[in-house]
Specification:
single chain, 236 residues, alpha+beta, Type Iii Antifreeze Protein Isoform Hplc 12, 2 domains, 7-stranded mixed beta sheet, two-stranded antiparallel ribbon, 9 strands
């Protein structure tokens, strides 16, 4: 009799454990196996945006059957520093490696982002874009006699020109060679190609140029301006 009673208690305990296990599986277990933690956008990300993962992304669990091709996880964030979005990414969208350019423009080492004051610039190529490798040349007050530049400028914008071959033939060695990090208009929006004809048409007139340079290079440019020079930029 006692043995049967013990068996009954064991049976009830087993059933209770089974019910509890089933509940836990339904409540939590399925979610663990049916979802995957991936990166999503915490804000609308415009085309051309330089990515800062801790600012632009968060980790969220997404149903495995809704995972998109090339979806990225938290462990992929480090590789995304400094890459550029090559398309618009809406808020809450999953993040795919297909959304970014492969070129990393993150500032490293002793370099920093430096916005060249517009008053230092005589002219830049109208087709210059973010990521271009550039040479910065200095020019003196005889610029208009030595260079045939049809510069055009309006308020809050920079003189632009189109024929780089003429510029290169008219200048000495560059004072600085570096990379363009941002090309923006007067409204602080990225200037990009307006259509598929690369560099033929921009979305707006160039209003500012930001480059990567060291503090020493920045001071050198500043000194040349103090000596009465201005700069003209050529990309290659």
């Amino acid at each position: 009799m006692r043995r049967k009673k013990v068996r009954g208690i064991i049976g009830i305990a087993f059933m209770a454990t089974s019910v509890a296990a089933m509940y836990l599986w339904m409540a939590y277990g399925q979610a663990v196996f049916a979802t995957k933690p991936v990166l999503i956008a915490v804000m609308d990300i415009e085309e051309g945006t330089l990515i800062e993962p801790e600012k632009h992304f968060a980790v969220a669990k997404v149903d495995t059957d809704l995972i998109i091709a090339g979806s990225l996880e938290a462990s992929d964030q480090q590789a995304l520093y400094g890459v550029a979005a090559k398309q618009f990414i809406p808020k809450n969208a999953q993040i795919s490696d297909q959304y970014f350019t492969k070129e990393n423009l993150a500032v490293t080492g002793d370099k920093a982002v430096f916005k060249i004051p517009n008053t230092w610039i005589y002219a830049v190529p109208s087709s210059m874009r973010r990521g271009d490798d550039i040479d910065i040349y200095e020019i003196d007050s005889n610029i208009e006699k030595n260079l045939h530049v049809n510069a055009s400028k309006s308020e809050d914008e920079i003189n632009t020109y189109s024929d780089q071959s003429v510029i290169r033939l008219s200048l000495d060695a560059p004072v600085l060679s570096t990379t363009v990090l941002y090309v923006k208009d007067a409204s602080n929006r990225e200037v990009v190609d307006a259509d598929e004809r690369k560099r033929f048409d921009g979305t707006s007139q160039i209003g500012s140029v930001e480059i990567a340079c060291t503090k020493k290079e920045m001071k050198a440019l500043e000194k040349r301006v103090a000596d009465g020079m201005m700069f003209i930029i050529v990309y290659h």
